[in-house]
Amino acid sequence: MAAPQGSDEPSPGAVRFANRALWFFAALFAMNLFFAFHLHRKPGIKAFAAIGLAAMVAARLRAKPQLRLSIVLMLAPAFLGLGAFEIFMSRKRPRDGTAAYLRGKSFDSRGLFEVVHDMQKTDPSVQSFVIPRALLTHNLDAPRWADEMLARTVQPDWGVEIDGVRTLPFAGVSSRTTVFCNEGGYWAVYDSDEHGYNNPKGIWGSAPLDVVIIGDSYSQGACVPPDRLTAAHVRKRYPKTLTLGMCANGPLMEYANLKEHVVDLKPKIVLWVYYDNDLSDMAVESNSELLLRYVEDDGFRQGLRAKQGAIDAALDAYLNKVGARSPAWPSPLASVGLTRQTTPLFLQDVVMREQHSSVASFLRLDWFTNAVTTRLFDRTFFADKPNWDLFRKVLKKARATVEGWGGQLYFVYLPDVFYMRRGMTEPNRQGVLESVMDAGMKLIDVHQSFMQLPNPDGHRPHYEAHFTEEGFELVAKFILEALQKDGL
């Protein structure tokens, strides 16, 4: 029955529409309240979702019909805009699994320790890779919501204990099949060398070496096969090439590697590979008295090479402990036929708290949530002012160390395509280049070489990833061209 002519009361159809819309909005708030707790999101997002849910239920049950309709008409454009924003961002920056499917590739959605445990069924010695800095900052007993905060803080029980001494290994377990990472759809796996790095065995014993590469995950070769990382391509010209790159290394960890290992190998060329997050990594590392001691005490070393057996045993114990706590696919779902392989990717994300599917990101309003939490609740860690004095000191000492055995040190500046694709300049680029010049180091500016490419961003499998196999090869090409110009 229609509302009487001239009445301010909405029609029964309009009231039904408002009621259903309010329940729909309440369901959206309830769903995102669930995801807020499920994903351990910031308290502000949880409060926002809870208040929104309560407001929608209250409006449905207590507000007059006219007010209900007004609320719906006010909220509908906002929700449509929010949905459009999520769809736009999902298309512009598809999650890794979705990006793989868009390229026509399959995507192995298993987690790191799911892969490790699956491979251990046929080879019990298979182990996970190690992030050395995680040994400084990771607290196994901490709640999950504290991970981000702890990633910036050195823990009291850092490292591993060897013969009663706190020790910080700089690599993974040696001589093992090592599960690394997955960004392009497949899991990269390598056989670690005699000291736990991503190199073929046998090079360590052939000093003096041709080239040693020092750096982070880009130097380690994330997440490509061992024959496709930059060091493998450099090795085609300089056979005795080692990479000591490890994930999350910053300048202090890299200088410690130089003193701990490279001084004994005396390579002709040392490539110090820099990426944009290195200065924020150094801010974390500078909380470690051990790493600072490498800089302050010229004679200090931990003697890691002589402790390899004990280090391997300690890392095995640590990784097995982490692996035992890692999430596994729920057996009740597997028992009814919903396995990793048969469950749609977006449902896997929901079940396992993962971010591989753009559909799941849309349902959870991930892009909106991330934008809000970053803007309102997070301290922008990468925007902190770098400790330029410490950075320059490390570079100067690195140069003096390498030149002490007659080697040549090159600073390799990798591109951060996050800025390049926007036509922006990395905030710290000028300061880094000035520091390199002040330290008297030779510069290989791969950033400038990438700038000349028609599509620099095309050398990553997705927007959050490292380089593709072709991208790592390009980095090697630019490095080798620069060395050739110097007659090396």
Q: Main β-sheet: number of strands, strand sense, barrel status?
A: 5 strands, parallel
Fold-level CATH name of the largest domain: Rossmann fold
What is the global morphology? elongated
Percent of sequence in beta strands = 5-15%
Mean pLDDT over all positions: 90
Radius of gyration over C-alpha positions, nearest whole angstrom: 26 Å
CATH superfamily of the largest domain: SGNH hydrolase
Structural features, described:
This protein is an alpha/beta fold and about 500 residues long. The chain folds into three domains: about 80 residues, no CATH class; about 70 residues, no CATH class; about 300 residues, 3-Layer(aba) Sandwich (Rossmann fold), CATH 3.40.50.1110. About 50% of the residues lie in helices and about 10% in strands. The protein contains 22 helices and ten strands. The strands form three sheets. It has a five-stranded parallel β-sheet, with helices on both faces. A three-stranded mixed β-sheet has the order 1-4-5. A hairpin with a 2-residue loop joins strand 2 and strand 3. Helix 1 runs antiparallel to helix 2 and helix 10 runs parallel beside helix 18. The protein is elongated. The protein starts with 11 loop residues before the first helix and ends with a helix.
